[in-house]
Amino acid sequence: MKTSGKVLADQVSKIKDSDVFSIRSNNLPTWCPGCGYFGIHQGLNNAIQRSKLPHHMVVTVSGIGCAGRYPFFTSNYGLHTVHGRALPVATGVKLANPDLTVFAVGGDGDGLAIGGAHLPHIARRDVNVNYLLFDNSIYGLTKGQPSPSSRPGLKTKASPEGSTDKPLNATLMALSYGASFVARLFAGDPESITEALLAGIKHPGFSFFHIYTTCVTFDKQFKTWDNLKAWSHPLPDHHDPTDRKTAMNLVLEDDFAMGILYKRETTG
Ligand code: SF4
Ligand code: MG
């Protein structure tokens, strides 16, 4: 049954007025219906609400891309910055006021191509920033081109015969660079995103969240909801998240085990 304009307007108005959505801004997300980013949005908003962080003490910094629009859709402070530069700006924000809780957000094009050289440095400096990589393995905002994490064979208008390049593995990169907290998550499981973020917010160092997600508009081949749901599974019960080497070995063998892979033990 088709929803009438008035019913839809009433539903939107209820959402805007609801306390449950207090962390959201009055700008409703402009992502395509069904985009995986809605799940990440829900996971992050719930983490901010549950952690009881005052909104004025939270800053979200983004680069450019569909994920770069995120700061417009929340009521905390936000900076929509330059392509690939979310991490250096987030570092500056944290240095200027260490009391702030800082999130950097961006896609795989933004974070692994033009911004790819910033991840090793924020990891080795262990800046207390939480970085969410929205990895749908395609450039969405520019209407579908292979990205650095695309699988070989991905067919787009820019790669009609299928992409031939090997994909980067962002989880393995973060572990190799010495990130002190590394989680791999799925946009279709917002509750797990919230739980991992709550642990990352408490972690006194750089926290990296590699979130597998969909671009429902431009990738109907690999990272679809059906495929990601079928491929994703939890970490093995015996996984020791304090052992970086174990985490790296697991990631080398298993692309879809989800959870907190590594967390440096802290004292005090
Ligand atoms: Fe999401 Fe793709 Fe649409 Fe961008 S183009 S909003 S990534 S579905
Ligand atoms: Mg992308």
Set down the secondary structure blueprint:
Layout: H1 5-17, H2 37-50, E1 58-62, E2 77-80, H3 86-96, E3 101-107, H4 108-114, H5 119-125, E4 130-135, E5 138-139, E6 145-146, H6 170-176, E7 181-186, H7 190-202, E8 207-212, H8 225-231, E9 233-234, H9 244-253, E10 257-263
Helix pairs in contact: 2-7, 6-9
Iron/sulfur cluster (SF4) binds at residues 31-32, 35, 37, 66, 136, 140-141, 215-218.
Number of strand elements: 10
CATH superfamily: Thiamin diphosphate (ThDP)-binding fold, Pyr/PP domains
**Order of H and E elements:** HHEEHEHHEEEHEHEHEHE
Task: Domain count, please report it.
Answer: 1
The main pleated sheet reads as: 8 strands, mixed
Question: Structural class of the secondary structure composition?
Answer: alpha/beta
Q: What general outline do the C-alpha atoms trace? A: globular
* Percent of residues in helices: 25-40%
Mean pLDDT: 94
- Number of helix segments? 9
Distance between the termini: 58 Å
Overview of the molecule:
- The protein has 268 residues and is α/β, with parallel strands linked by helices.
- It has one domain: Thiamin diphosphate (ThDP)-binding fold, Pyr/PP domains (Rossmann fold).
- It is built from nine helices and ten strands.
- The strands form two sheets. An eight-stranded mixed beta sheet has the order 2-1-3-4-8-7-10-9, sandwiched between helices.
- Helix 2 (37-50) packs across helix 7.
- The longest helix is centred in the N-terminal third of the chain and has 14 residues, at 37-50.
- It is globular and about 55 Å long.
- The termini are far apart.
- The structure holds iron/sulfur cluster and magnesium ion (MG).
- Magnesium ion is lined by residues 107-109, 136, 138-140, 147.
